[in-house]
Every structure is written in C-alpha cells, then in structure tokens.
Amino acid sequence: MPDSTAAAVTDPGVARVNALATADFRTEFAQCLNIDRWVEALLNERPFSDRTALLDAVDAHARSITDDEVASALARHPRIGDRASGNSTESQWSRGEQSGFAEGATDVQSAFHEGQVEYEKRFGQIYLVCASGRSSEELLADLQSRLDNDPATESRVVADELRKIALLRVGKVLDNT
C-alpha cells in the first residue's frame, strides 16, 4: 500500500483501516462479517479513497454471499434474546444491536421465543436479523412473516441481513479511531 494514498485520505477511520496490518484487518473485518472471501476481497481493494468507497465495496461483496457462507457466518451470531458472552468487540456490538429486544414486553418475547423454535425446526438454523434500532414487536412481526418463506428465499433474506449487519459494523470500525 503506498503511503501517499493513505496520507491523502481525510477520514481518520478510513486512514486507520488503510494502515491496518493484514492480520489486524482480517481480525477487525471478520468481526463485521465472518466470511473469509468477503474479508479477503476488501483487503485486496485497499487502500480506500474514502468512506463511501469502503462502504460501497463492503456492500458489493456482501451481496454475493453464498448459502454455504450464510451457514458459516451464522455460527458467530447468537440467537436474538441470547446475550453474547465475553468482552470481545463483536460480543459488545451484538449486545448493543439487540438492546431493543431486551426492552420488549414479556408476552412479545414469549411469542418471539416460540417463533424462533418454529423457525429453527423449519430452516435448521437460527433466525438472524439486523436487530439494531428495532423493537421487540418489529422483530416478532419480521420473524412471523419470514416463516412463510421457502428455504431458498429465506437463505437470500438471511444473506441480506448479514449484509446489513456488516455495513453497520464496518461503520463502527470506521468510527473507532
């Protein structure tokens, strides 16, 4: 990476991302979306000229998530309502992203839990949604509507939710200067 390009970037978050050692870049971006192909594609596009260029690349590469990559990425995500354990950045992000769910009414949370069980039986995986800023009622409505999806459609919906989570988390990486 040429030093002159990194120096020309005025966004301190993008400058930091451009300057990360390869191993550090992989670690930080795997916390955003744990798909090796996606992380490597972003790594290979560095340096980024600005925030828009980085977020556009994040979005573009996340739009091609495969069904196998969905299954792999789901392994890093807790169920909605289960608190991520540990003090890692990813665990802290997860707890914050689900904070709206924790504030919901008990009857909504109970119905949500029942819906998750049904979802897991139907699709063989956890229900995943970009929960940030969404209420328990909104999440329950989303879950219930997705139960009508066929498996292929649901896989694409989950891939898109992973994309949304990745964009949100990369924003957090950029703001961590």
Automatic annotation (TrEMBL):
Keyword Repressor: no
Composition-biased stretches (Polar residues): 85-97
Ranges for region Disordered: 76-100
Pfam families: OHCU_decarbox (PF09349)
EC number of this enzyme: 4.1.1.97
Highest taxon of source: Bacteria
Pathway: Purine metabolism; urate degradation; (S)-allantoin from urate: step 3/3
Gene3D superfamilies, A to Z: Oxo-4-hydroxy-4-carboxy-5-ureidoimidazoline decarboxylase (1.10.3330.10)
Catalytic activity, reaction form: 5-hydroxy-2-oxo-4-ureido-2,5-dihydro-1H-imidazole-5-carboxylate + H(+) = (S)-allantoin + CO2
Residues in Oxo-4-hydroxy-4-carboxy-5-ureidoimidazoline decarboxylase domain copies: 18-170
UniProt KW keywords: Decarboxylase, Lyase, Purine metabolism
Keyword set includes Lyase: yes
Protein's UniProt name: 2-oxo-4-hydroxy-4-carboxy-5-ureidoimidazoline decarboxylase
Coiled coil: none
GO MF terms, alphabetically ordered: 2-oxo-4-hydroxy-4-carboxy-5-ureidoimidazoline decarboxylase activity
InterPro entries listed in its UniProt record: OHCU_decarboxylase, OHCU_decarboxylase-2, OHCU_decarboxylase_sf
GO annotation (BP), single: urate catabolic process
UniProt organism field: Haloactinospora alba
